[in-house]
Amino acid sequence: MNLQKQRRKRGVILTPQGWQKLQTAKAEAEDCENDGIRYSLEALSFRIGLDSDTLCKVFNRQIGVDRSTLNRCFAAFKLLLDPQDYYRPQPEGETITGLSENIRKIRWDWGEAPESGVFYGRTEELSKLKHWIIEEHSRLVALLGMGGMGKSCIAVKLAREIQDRFELIIWRSISGCSAVNDFIAGLLKFFANDEETNLPETLDGKISRLIQYLREHRCLLVFDNMETILKGCDASYRKNGFCNCLGHYCEGYEGYGELLKRLGETLHQSCVVVTSREKPQEIGLLEGENLAVRYLQVKGLPAAEAQKILMGNGCFSDSPTDYQQVIEFYGGNPLALKLVSRTIQNLFAGNLSEFFKQKPGVFGHIRELLDGHFDRLSHPEKEIINCLSSNCQAASFTELRSQISPNISLSNLMESLESLTDRCLIDKDTPKFIEKGATVFYLQPVVREYAMSR
């Protein structure tokens, strides 16, 4: 028994200083070497030369690893591992003093939370989120939007600004995550200072134990990149030609839906924030204006804030119209603007006018970003996008119904439109110049250009 305890405590764990040092170097490498796109767990595994399970232990800082493992992680980002970057957990029963005692008092775990870096705008979004969480005590909040809109950065900024309102903060990236039973077990061990030994065997029991902690303590949990475990269009979900897969989970991950459902339905004093490119079905079923489950659709930055990204990356123009054209074309998407500004800097010496003369359209990582969205769509959804892109203007539901293929039924059209708005691929508006209550649907220019070039 003593030998087993010693094995569980063997190894070293990153200190907050060491973790921050490694995360900063990783963020800089992503910025300089990967066009600002975060490394996946697989990419990190290839770069460092360690398996994904070991990397999860390193970044989660709950289980000790060999010091040589930390050396490899630091060396992969051209860092030296200093003694103050790690500590050795004390065996059970011994008095913990100095650094280890301070670490045990820290009740946050930022996991793989990204560096927020230079943060532009989002004042209105942050204010609304704070109101929901602090004033209205929302239990489940989702940030939804296209890739690159900055959902994770907003979540980091939000968590850091309201962290003093909570006893515990936990950030978990769902990308590359294990089955839900192991996922919840990891959360429970953190709550119990890694001393939770008698965990319930069933998923229902584990969720109940988690909710018990969320009732006893004021906690903030962030589940990032939820879309990575959601299904794309799948033949098994097709019914009468329509792929009803939106918000459904990949095989083996269905338990996450039950977890979100229970977290949203059950009374507790904590808050769970979810980021996703698509809306999990539990959010759609539970959210409401006067309910404890809310969602915020994250859209592009306003022109003034988006222009700061272009200027901050060396782009210039004597004409305000040039800035406006680039921002409108890419829908104010922060990542798209960052990527395109590098191309403008590298090929056109930062000159926006010269860049726009070439009519470059959609290219590089921006095309890959949209590929990831479009590959998950059903046939009716693609038909709607093609219809809107060929018209080059907004269309009402009645207009779409008259122009779309007769093979798509009324119910399929309605379901597909809702699906596309939930996927944040089409926008909608109620212009003042048309009859009251009517809504028109339209594409951002970059999405239209992409659809026309496919």
Write a brief caption for the model.
By secondary structure, the protein is of the alpha/beta class.
Architecture (CATH level 2) name of the largest domain: 3-Layer(aba) Sandwich
Predict the CATH topology of the largest domain: Rossmann fold
Quaternary arrangement of the chains shown? single chain
How many structural domains?
4
Strand order of the largest sheet: 3-5-6-9-4-10
* Mean pLDDT over the full residue set: 83
Q: How many β-strand stretches?
A: 13
- Can you tell me the overall shape? globular
Radius of gyration: 24 Å
Tally of DSSP helical segments: 21
Which class of secondary structure composition applies to the elements?
Answer: alpha/beta
Query: What is the class of the largest domain in the CATH system?
Result: Alpha Beta
Query: Unreliable runs, pLDDT <50, ≥5 residues?
Result: 1-9, 92-106
Fraction in beta strands: 5-15%
Percent of residues in helices: 40-55%
Structure explained in plain terms:
The structure is a single chain. The chain is an alpha/beta fold and 454 residues long. 49% of the residues lie in helices and 10% in strands. It has 4 domains: 1-106, 434 Repressor (Amino-terminal Domain) (Orthogonal Bundle); 107-298, Rossmann fold, CATH 3.40.50.300; 303-360, no CATH class; 371-453, Winged helix-like DNA-binding domain superfamily/Winged helix DNA-binding domain (Arc Repressor Mutant, subunit A), CATH 1.10.10. It is built from 21 helices and 13 strands. The strands form 4 sheets. It has a 6-stranded parallel β-sheet with strand order 3-5-6-9-4-10, sandwiched between helices. Strand 7 and strand 8 form a beta hairpin. The radius of gyration is 24 Å and the shape is globular. The model is unreliable at 1-9 and 92-106 (pLDDT under 50).
